[in-house]
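Regression test case RT-17, inverse folding.

Input:
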């Protein structure tokens, strides 16, 4: 009847309370319970190493490994230990999370827009109206879409540059190899040319022609056979970097005898 209490008296299982507006009594088996949901309020907002006063909207730049916490409470005079809380973070979960802790931690909140809803209830009461906290975690420059696009582009250009460098080195190696083989072929041809003296070949063919005209076919055939053997050995030796000394002596001996 009134908050102005003058006296309290217990008579068995009945409690008598005298107020300025009259006498109130309560029976132990029929004590009325307060079923009105408690009012929830925010105490503080903490992000990283900083703390902020309670507010309805919170905006901050993303901090790497920065923990986000919201501390709140509810007014309940009867059975305060039985007060329960529920919260819902849009983008994180679609269902309410029930807890008895008055601190909600988010260890690594990524950049984005979030709406945090918090409500409470006490013993035998319904859930009260939710308190809303609008949160905006702004991305840093390297988390922006254009920065990521630039990083991807730079990565692709770097890969293309490396591939181009590798292709150039391969082409240069192939070019050197081709030039080396061409030079070797020129040297071999030059060595062969030096060995096969044009005057020697011309004189040999004239000798064969003379034998044929003189109708000395057998001698001409022997001459051609020796000449072919000499040319074959000369060609074989020109393809080798090294030849045994015995083969070189045999070749020179055959060449000298043949010229005679």
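Golden output:
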């Amino acid at each position: 009847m009134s908050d102005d209490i003058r006296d309290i008296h217990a008579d068995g299982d009945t409690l008598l309370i005298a107020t300025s507006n009259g006498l109130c009594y309560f029976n132990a088996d029929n004590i009325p319970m307060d079923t009105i949901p408690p009012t929830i309020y925010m105490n503080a907002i903490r992000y990283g190493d900083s703390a902020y006063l309670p507010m309805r909207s919170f905006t901050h730049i993303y901090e790497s490994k920065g923990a986000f916490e919201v501390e709140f409470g509810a007014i309940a005079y009867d059975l305060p230990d039985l007060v329960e809380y529920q919260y819902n973070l849009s983008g994180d979960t679609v269902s309410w999370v029930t807890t008895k802790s008055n601190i909600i931690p988010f260890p690594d909140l990524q950049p984005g827009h979030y709406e945090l809803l918090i409500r409470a209830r006490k013993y035998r009461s319904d859930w009260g109206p939710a308190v809303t906290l609008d949160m905006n975690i702004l991305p840093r420059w390297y988390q922006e879409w254009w920065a990521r696009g630039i990083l991807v582009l730079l990565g692709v250009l770097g890969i293309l540059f490396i591939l181009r460098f590798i292709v150039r080195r391969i082409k240069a190696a192939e070019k050197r190899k081709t030039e080396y083989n061409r030079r070797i072929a020129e040297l071999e041809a030059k060595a062969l040319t030096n060995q096969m003296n044009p005057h020697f070949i011309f004189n040999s063919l004239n000798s064969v022609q003379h034998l044929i005209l003189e109708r000395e076919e057998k001698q001409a055939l022997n001459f051609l056979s020796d000449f072919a053997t000499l040319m074959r050995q000369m060609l074989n030796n020109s393809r080798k970097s090294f030849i045994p000394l015995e083969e070189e002596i045999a070749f020179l001996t055959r060449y000298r005898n043949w010229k005679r």
